[in-house]
Specification:
about 475 residues, mainly alpha, about 80% helix
């Protein structure tokens, strides 16, 4: 069910929109987490390292499409907020056609480049074959991942974050059952968890497609309804280019960091992977608040209600900080138990992995408030159509993280712990640019440009000159 976020109490709209989206992302994160737990329990630390080392490469090759989804989400939410439902339909079909051709290109590229990229990332020889098996199965099933994320993203852009959750829960539970069956019963190892993920993502895409076709008239299409609108695509691309570049640079940065992690061997690789899974769950609510704020800002730009956007920022930041307090307390009190989920603590070879993983968690959780500030401000700027600032923020944040990581790990007595400390340093750097942009008020100029662009695309009257805009 679509949600109009231009009316009602902002914090309630954002919270109620965030909760099902958060639950959905938790279950989506279970795909990778259960993969890691199952292979860690049944195959050991080398299998964990093989699974985790693939993800930076996936994100690098898919950065264009992830960025396009962000740009399209802004356009669709702004059309919806302005009440331009025909343009919503045209934007959806345009995005679907574009992504179909992206899949045709990206799948063979991923299959061809997997091994060269892994060698560039210094993947240890003992886990190379498992890493390649996992990556190749992933690229075989790329269409299913794209399909689900396309359909779920469109539903969220019009305010429906609940429906994708239901299908994702079904899919995640299917993935858990198949993981255990393929690995524990059939002995397929790393390839088994990859096949389980592929099948489960296919299921979630099919369920989402059936629901939209039968229950959402606005998004129900026949072949004759499919339109490829170049003008709308250009509008999406203008917003997507900064996000795509941001995703690409971030993923390349992750690959650089992962290469540094790999240089410390499979113990640190496994610790980095297990702790990283815990970290992903801990920061997920903050990321989802930022995503919800983007939709909130997008709809309110379309309705030209800037005062609601400012109120939404304050509410989102407060809720995110409360989450930070909870997750930090949990990490310090239950850190060892969280890492032991992934490995058998009774085995001597796993004790150092667990010790390093706990050290990672206790280091980064103290600084979650920096991540919350960055995610909130980048969320409102992106939803307002200012996608360049979040891109610049990510570039600066990642550059600082990489420089700090390489500098600290080369110091005597620091070693791998420099990897953990580089993360909060990057978050601190990532707060600088969006804070200046938002506090100066110049983001409102970009919001006005987006509103006028919507009016031009739909043939509506332009916005009267606003008095509250700020000179750039």
């Amino acid at each position: 069910m679509a949600t109009d976020m231009t009316e009602g109490t902002p914090w309630r709209r954002i919270l109620y929109f965030t909760l099902p989206m958060l639950a959905g992302n938790i279950f989506q994160q279970l795909y990778n987490t259960v993969d890691t737990i199952v292979v860690g329990r049944y195959e050991g630390k080398n299998a964990i390292a093989a699974v985790s080392t693939s993800f930076p490469m996936f994100f690098m090759l898919l950065a264009l499409v992830f960025g396009m989804n962000m740009g399209a989400g802004v356009v669709i939410s702004q059309f919806f907020g302005a009440g331009k439902l025909e343009q919503v339909r045209r934007a959806v079909t345009t995005l679907a056609v574009f992504q179909f051709f992206c899949v045709l290109v990206m799948s063979p590229i991923g299959l061809m480049l997997s091994e060269p990229i892994f060698r560039l990332m210094k993947v240890p020889p003992e886990i190379m074959q498992d890493s390649l098996a996992y990556a190749r199965i992933f690229f075989y099933g790329l269409v299913f991942m794209f399909g689900y994320n396309l359909l779920a993203g469109i539903l969220r852009a019009i305010g429906d974050s609940r429906t994708p959750l239901i299908f994702l829960i079904i899919s995640a539970l299917t993935n858990i059952v198949l993981d255990i069956y393929f690995v524990a019963s059939l002995g397929w190892g790393v390839a088994g968890v990859a096949w389980a993920t592929l099948i489960s993502q296919c299921l979630s895409m099919i369920l989402c497609f059936i629901y939209i076709s039968r229950k959402i008239p606005l998004l129900s299409f026949t072949v004759q309804d499919i339109v490829f609108d170049r003008e709308i695509l250009q509008s999406m691309i203008r917003l997507a280019i900064p996000s795509s570049l941001q995703q690409m640079v971030v993923s390349m940065g992750f690959m650089t960091v992962q290469s540094l992690v790999n240089s410390f061997g499979t113990v640190t690789m496994a610790a980095f992977s297990a702790a990283g899974r815990v970290d992903s769950f801990a920061t997920m609510p903050i990321q989802n608040f930022g995503g919800a704020l983007s939709t909130f800002a997008g709809q309110n730009v379309g309705a030209w209600k800037l005062e609601r956007i400012s109120e939404g920022v304050r509410s989102t930041l407060m809720m995110s900080l409360l989450v930070c307090l909870f997750t930090t307390t949990l990490a310090y009190t239950a850190g060892p138990y969280l890492i032991e989920i992934f490995l058998d603590a009774g085995l001597e070879e796993n004790r150092e992995v667990i010790a390093q993983g706990v050290d990672y968690i206790k280091t980064v959780t103290m600084f979650y408030f920096l991540f919350a500030l960055s995610a909130t401000l980048n969320g409102v700027l992106r939803g307002s159509g200012d996608t360049f600032t979040p891109m610049a923020s990510s570039f600066f944040s990642l550059s600082v993280r990489i420089i700090v990581a390489y500098s600290l790990t080369s110091m005597p007595g620091v070693g791998y712990r420099g990897l953990w400390w580089s993360l909060p340093c990057g978050w601190l750097a990532g707060c600088v640019i969006p804070s200046i942009r938002y506090l100066s008020g110049t983001w409102k100029n970009r919001a006005r440009q987006r509103y006028e662009s919507i009016m031009n695309l739909t043939g509506s009257d332009p916005l009267p000159l606003a008095l509250d805009l700020v000179e750039p």
